[in-house]
Description:
This protein is of the alpha/beta class. The protein has one domain: Amidase signature (AS) enzymes. The chain contains 16 helices and 15 strands. The chain has helices at 4-7, 11-19, 25-43, 51-67, 109-116, 159-166, 183-189, 223-233, 276-291, 306-323, 327-330, 336-347, 350-354, 356-373, 412-415, 447-461; strands at 46-49, 78-82, 120-125, 137-138, 142-143, 172-177, 192-195, 215-220, 262-265, 295-298, 376-380, 399-401, 404-406, 422-429, 435-442. Strands 1-3-2-6-8-7-14-15-11-9-10 form an 11-stranded mixed β-sheet, with helices on both faces. Helix 3 runs antiparallel to helix 4 (51-67) and helix 8 (223-233) runs antiparallel to helix 16 (447-461). The longest helix is centred in the N-terminal third of the chain and has 19 residues, at 25-43.
Amino acid sequence: MADLELAFLPATEMAAAVAAGEVSPVELVDNALARIDEVNPDLNAFCFVWEEQANAAAHASAQAVSRGDDLGPLHGVPVALKDTTPTRGQRTTLGSYAYEHWVPEVDAAIARKLQHAGAIVVGKTTTPEFAHALNTDSPLWGVTRNPWNLELTPGGSSGGSGAAVASGCVPLAEGSDMGGSVRIPAAWCGVVGLKPGLGRIPMDVLPGLFDNISHHGPLARCVDDARLFLAATQGPDESDILSLPKPLDLSMPLSGSLDGVRVALSIDLDIWAVEPAIERSVRAAASAMEEAGAIVTEVHPGFDATEEREWYKLWSVFMAAYYGQFLDEYGDRMTPAVRRLIEAGNALGAVEYKQVEFTRTRMWNQMRPILDRNDVFLCPTMANSPVPASVEGIELKVGMIEGRYHSPDMTAIWNMISPCPAISVPCGLDDDAMPVGAQLIGRRWQEDRLLEVARGLEIALGRTLRPNMP
């Protein structure tokens, strides 16, 4: 059986213990593999577990400690990669029959950076097909379940990563975020999820390097672990022409002071229908920040739901451009929603697609004065509680109903102003004892400041969430 105390140790503490010789990388990896063996049959968080490779890396890592080698910031720490991230010599399926047997010849930049930092990759986490959805149900790998309630989804598209971190398999897992795919599972699994600003972590996994809504980001159990992940994986890197040339100084642990921090609060973004229990949790988070010295002001960004509908155009064209060529051969084995996205993207005209930039510009002009006056913007991550795990079990109300916009996530719109980082921090439980996430949006490319405020929120709340799972 896995040692749960060790399994739920933060990555920062694991790395420090390894460097001090207090715990061996072999022990950490053995424990991670044991925990995966215990919970994965129920969760389906991992589609690949690299036991032999991880054990070999752990022994090499232990020998480096014994020799007194210089150690990376994640030396000996077990981590997981999402099954959309190419890894040399290891299958990468994107959750789709179209990529069922694909074995990349090179590692993605983020995989290289994690391994250079000393992290030990123990496997690949499940994703919905082409990372398209807010629930994780892949035609190739099946349904992934939430550690808090196996009937419900962990979210998506980085749902396997969220479930893996929440259940104690690994302290850190990589995710990708084009419309909330890191923050959604973070909120619904009760962990931390960071979407950095565009280009902060090199993104070289897509056929097109000039995509501007796509981000890699960490899922972690605490904010300082997210800081450590970002420190290890940030650019620049020539593999991504959009990677930012100047890295942030993220070498020191976060203090989390909220004294004088200015917070703009909007529960509903002026249009969203938000469940009462989620509103209560996010307002309680805002109150906790005030008690810790922050200055919280309610604001009105003036959104009207066209923002998310316009994001959907970007997403459908993304799917059609990158994966539409598989429709004829694999369409009958694709998730129906993927087919619909591809068809919608194919039907969109070039001028209408280009005009999405008008909405993105308007959004920035609405948010710019708010972020000028405030350090961060606070709202819920998700408007409602987790939905059923299986695609067949989902009945979502999406669209305008009685003057309010109904959509589960409040995340995709922030990919429209992609240089602004966003993070989801657990802030409580809803009426069904499921996690609630508070979402903080920062000034563009100021992840260091956003992480400090997020850490302050974490301290102010004074607790971490952990599912009641054996």
